[in-house]
């Protein structure tokens, strides 16, 4: 059995990671002023935030053409793969994975298994990496899917955004009405709801400093509830200095927890806006 792993560009895997783990990355389009750009191909993260900072129009996102996915799956079949596990961003923020679930039964030369990560960003990238690691060791699709389900259940994340404008306009915030109209210094904390897997704003904190401190408290609470090692992740939206400083603080506080850095690229940044920060975690799949 030969299993391929596919994910999309919102996993924010580096080119080196994608090559090392033999992960096929499909770009998600972001639409700016009526023109479509493939994330990570036609537009860089830096170019996107420069545009976002200086533009009055609102960017939107789309889905990769299904024809491109069919071509990719056929290509993998021609390369000798008999199964592909296709891991994509949460169905609550994009219809892409559900489109693939409808497409999969029509592909007859390779078994296509679409997988809803129920998340996005590098957390989803971790799922793709573990799937690839297991495939390389000869695991079956069922074993890989069970492992992904287990890891997915250990994910936690909190986002600190400057304002909710982009999420509200893009329709990605399920309880927006409760948080619209806040004074400028209020920083809403966002997360993916454990039950609905939708992005929700669950708490308002006055000032960015207090918001980050509150997220750190929530991380402490999460650690107390688990009996396995964690891997942490600090993510920034065009705020590398802020992200690096926060990651250094987390590393100093918890030296036994690996802390990695990542970023919100154009597709996710279009919804969160510039200067968003997030602290996320997952079971450390290399140690448990």
UniProtKB/TrEMBL annotation:
<dbReference type="InterPro" id="IPR003797">
    <property type="entry name" value="DegV"/>
</dbReference>
<protein>
    <submittedName>
        <fullName>DegV family protein</fullName>
    </submittedName>
</protein>
<keyword id="KW-0446">Lipid-binding</keyword>
<dbReference type="InterPro" id="IPR050270">
    <property type="entry name" value="DegV_domain_contain"/>
</dbReference>
<dbReference type="GO" id="GO:0008289">
    <property type="term" value="F:lipid binding"/>
</dbReference>
<dbReference type="InterPro" id="IPR043168">
    <property type="entry name" value="DegV_C"/>
</dbReference>
<dbReference type="Pfam" id="PF02645">
    <property type="entry name" value="DegV"/>
</dbReference>
<comment type="function">
    <text>May bind long-chain fatty acids, such as palmitate, and may play a role in lipid transport or fatty acid metabolism.</text>
</comment>
